[in-house]
Design a protein that fits this description.
about 350 residues, mainly alpha, Farnesyl Diphosphate Synthase, Trans_IPPS_HH, Phytoene/squalene synthase family protein, transferase, Squ/phyt_synthse, Trans_IPPS_bact-type
């Protein structure tokens, strides 16, 4: 999936083609993520359309790698090519889209249009594919820093691309967008510990498992439900400073886009809080927010945006994850893969 040079800019879709792609994307979102669908309705029309097109590519990649449709109905492995073959095909078609090939499936044409329209660097969709490679190779994570590397690639990068769709370009705002994606992914991991383990995926760091006295195989064992609930709660707690950092990033977004992001922020954060509150009873179930709760977060989102129109502290805590391009060694030190220091 590495490339020797930056691809040439892909072509913009025609207005007719883009409308058709957007209709397909909207259907994908409605079936694949009710939470995102609810928040997306708050975006201005053009931002909403690009956000949906970007989501359609992400959803397609996720489904292809997992052998699913819209995040559900996992197909028998015998009916599918090997996981690495599926990933290689995704990477090939993504690169073809970034090079301007207009003969591809709608998900890839959707990505090409968004990348061209919003001048999104090719490295971001490529980094996102790297997250899928980590899944396909069933990587394990020794430390929470390594888990955060994974979260950045599968979700932080998406947050950055979404922020660019909304007009953000400065690194500080993109850092906050990455923080929100990371917070979302930590919430997902906490909610799906058991389900993921059943499919051979473990994102909880090995050091946390050891501290809880657990082996990977214990995650699906009902006898260890209390300990697994403790791990889920720890992940929810770890997400909190990322949600807090992302909140302060709302001030850099146009008000209506900030409203949509604030609503998604509230809905997803609530999933984690509910998961933690239910403890062992939530282990192995899928926590979600109901319609009334979503409407409440729409209203709360508006209040959050109003609050962030006021001067607020913008400095991001240095202990938070630093995305790769923002890492730098201290004077006299060599850069290392474990460096977590942020930029300014």
């Amino acid at each position: 999936m590495s490339i020797a040079s930056e691809p040439m800019p892909p072509q913009l879709a025609t207005s007719t083609d883009r409308a058709e792609l957007a209709a397909l994307a909207e259907d994908t979102i409605a079936r694949g993520s009710k939470s995102f669908a609810a928040a997306a309705k708050l975006f201005p029309p053009e931002v909403r359309r690009s956000a949906m097109l970007l989501y359609a590519w992400c959803r397609h990649c996720d489904d292809v790698v997992d052998g699913q449709q819209f995040g559900f109905a996992r197909r028998p492995a015998a009916e599918l090519p090997a996981p690495m073959q599926r990933l290689d095909a995704l990477a090939t078609d993504t690169m073809r889209a970034l090079w301007g090939d207009t003969t591809l499936a709608p998900a890839f044409l959707s990505l090409a249009d968004v990348v061209a329209r919003h001048a999104i660097p090719a490295r971001f969709p490529i980094e996102h594919l790297e997250g899928y490679r980590m899944d396909v190779e069933a990587e394990r994570y020794a430390t929470i820093g390594e888990t955060l590397d994974y979260c950045y690639r599968v979700a932080g990068v998406v947050g950055i691309m979404m922020a660019m769709v909304m007009g953000a370009r400065d690194d500080r705002t993109l850092d906050r967008a990455s923080d929100l994606g990371i917070a979302f992914q930590l919430t997902n991991i906490a909610r799906d510990i058991v389900e993921d383990a059943r499919h051979g995926r473990v994102y909880v760091p090995a050091e946390w498992l050891a501290e809880a006295g657990l082996q990977e195989g214990d995650l699906t064992d009902a006898a260890h439900r209390e300990a697994v609930a403790g791990l889920a709660a720890r992940l929810v707690d770890h997400a909190e400073p990322y949600y807090r950092s992302a909140f302060f990033g709302l001030s850099a977004l146009p008000a209506r886009s900030a409203w949509a992001v604030a609503t998604a922020h509230g809905v997803y954060r609530q999933i984690g809080l509910d998961l933690k509150a239910r403890g062992a009873d939530a282990v192995g179930t899928r926590i979600s927010t109901g319609r009334l709760a979503k409407l409440r977060h729409v209203a709360l989102g508006a209040a959050k945006v109003a609050a962030t129109r006021l001067p607020l502290p913008l400095r991001r805590p240095q202990e938070l994850y630093a995305r790769p391009m923002r890492r730098r060694p201290a004077p006299g030190e060599e850069r290392s893969s474990g460096d977590r220091r942020t930029g300014p």
